[in-house]
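We treat protein structure as text, and this decision shapes the records that our systems exchange. The tokens are whole numbers drawn from a learned vocabulary of local backbone shapes. One such record is reproduced below, unchanged from the form in which we store it:
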Amino acid sequence: MIAAYARGVDPPSASITDGGRRPHPRTATGSGDRRDGVDVGWGVRIPEDEIALLFSRSGGPGGQKVNTAATKVQVRFDVDGSAVLSDEQKRRVHDRLAGRLTADGVLVLHASEHRTQARNRAAAVARLRHLLHDALAPPAAPRRPTRRPPAADRRRLEAKRQRSDKKRLREAPRPPLD
């Protein structure tokens, strides 16, 4: 896992995907373990070494430890440099997340809504997962144009005729022209 740590904070011992909780040794399954990357769906699993985590001090609640703990999390994912995304997938991410990418093609997300680094890390990774899942979705099938049924045209014209008759009957009678 590539990570940069602010102000000498030691790297966490747990994975980026487990929210700071280590799995029980008897339940960890190796290849099926959640610690081998971030599954975003559509057959794409981003390995941990392609995700950079940076930690810094966060504002907001925290009590006495707010000035000493680096709880704010910044997640950086280099879309252009990713080995797991195809060129088509990279194009989709650029098209759909253009406002969130840097000029270098790096997706940057922040999380500081929780008081602990582990929960902020889990929130940021979940946000990354959801954004990439939506961005990598295949395009919708194009709409097949349909014709309006002839009966609908007849009903529309008949309704127009009825409205016209109703309004004509509301008019005052005109004197005959002699």
Observations:
- Strands lie at 2-5, 38-41, 44-46, 51-56, 72-78, 106-111.
